[in-house]
Structures are given as C-alpha cells and as structure tokens.
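Lab meeting minutes (informal)
Scribe: AK
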Amino acid sequence: MHQQIYLKINTDLNDLPLVLSWFEQINQPPLSDPTIWWQSQTLLIEGFTNIVEHAHKDLPQETPIEIQVVRSSEDIEIRIISQGKAFNLEHKLQEISEFEDNEQERGRGLKIMSLLADKLSYENTANGCYCLFISKNI
C-alpha cells in the first residue's frame, strides 16, 4: 500500500480546516488504531500552525506552503515546505526541555510534535526552501 497526496496553500491559519479536510483522504482505508490517526492530525495541525506563525511570520499571506503526505503500510510521512527563515529544531527542543517547568506557551507545539512523532526534522532543501519532516509509525 502506498498513497501520496499534495496540497499548495497560502500562508493563512484560516485555511487549517481545509488542510484537515484534504488530509482525511490519506486515512482511506481507515487506520486500525484511531489514536495513531488522531496523533497524525495533531502533528499536521501543529506543523502547519508553526510554519504560518513562525517561519512565514514576516511574509505575505500569498506566500505558498506546500504539504506532501505519503502513507505506506509502515508510516505516515508529512512534509511541509516553507519559504521562511533558517531554524535549528534540535537546539530549540533542547531549550524547551531545559525549561520544562516554564509556563510560557511558546514552544509547546514543538514539544507536542517531538513527543508524538517518530521522526521530526527541519532541513534546508536544494531550492532554498525549508522542509518540516514528520514521520509517524503506524
């Protein structure tokens, strides 16, 4: 089994319901464990939100975000391609874990993603964009 879907969308948090609706097609046939599906949806929500609110913070709303999702029999891979700034994900996650008792809201989405994802990275692509890569074992 191998499914692949692609979406190009503007930098707009109001489009999150559209992104989630589009994502539903990858859950056909439905995963046997609904918890894995809920976690995959949460990973997409947090990833998209972080790109809009942080990576694309100073960019026009028309700036595209590309989302690619691949489902195989082993996992769901989510790639969110952005045109934002460089960001050291590992360093930020270490910062967050050092201040776990901190009541600040900043960084909670990254922490949630690091706990739910089996693989998580933010890398520069060959064309000068950045890819937030999220993998969830199924």
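Next up, CB showed the second protein from the same session:
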Amino acid sequence: MWPTIFGATNLVALAAWAILLFLPRRPFAMASVLYLGIALLCLVYTVLLVLLVTGAVDPVRDAGAAWSADFSLAGIKALSRSDGAVVLGWTHYLAFDLFVGLWIARDADAKGFSRIAQAPVLLTTFLAGPLGLLIWLAIRERRARASGRWA
C-alpha cells in the first residue's frame, strides 16, 4: 500500500512540475498544477494524516513507532520508522515545494522573467525547495532594488 501511494504522489508531483517547466502558462495549465497537483497532494496528505493518527491504517508500522506529540528529535525519529509516516512526510514536502514552485513561476511571469531564467530556480526548488525559494527571493529583491520598486 505505502509504495503505491508513494509512487502515485511522485507521479502527480512530477507531472505538475513538468507543466510548470515545459508547457505554456495558460490558465488551464496553471489550474491543473494548482488543483490536480497541489490540491490533490494536500487531499492525500490530509486523508493519510487522519488515518495514521487515528490508527486506522499503517500495516507496516514498526512496533516501537508510537504516534505522539513529541516533537523532539527523538520523537520525530521514532515517527520516521513508520512507512506511513515517511509517505506522509514526503507528500507534505511534495505539496509545499510544488506550491512554492507555482508561486515562483507566477511571480516571475508577472515580473517579466524569461522561462529560461526561471528554469534553474524552478529546478532548484523541485530538488531542494527552501534553497530554490531563497534564490528566487534574492533575485526578485535585487531586481526590485535595481528598478526602485518594492514588490
């Protein structure tokens, strides 16, 4: 079950990233990324969270992995021994990185950046979300300062 969900969420995210990187940014394409990509991943995340926290599913859960509100390093490490928790966490990353990628693409389009200039930032966001966001924030700040406009 968990490998199937993991694979499906990866396919959804990859398809949405491909749309962002390679297709014209028309309303239907952008809506597809938002609703068939981000919203679908958020829905999967929400359902998995409820099912895992309530104990309704997690057939391969390690005996020592207990769900708790222990947000210490040891507590988070204990949660990661569950395949379900790993898939949940991965889905969380996929959804948020894709959301950030969509925001960067829309913001870059609005500010007149070419798709070629956007591609490295979007690829970095896909591979290392916070780094891609940091790079984009630095680029947009520099452009705003150079033009005398703050956005």
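CB comment: The mean pLDDT is 88.
No objections, moving on.
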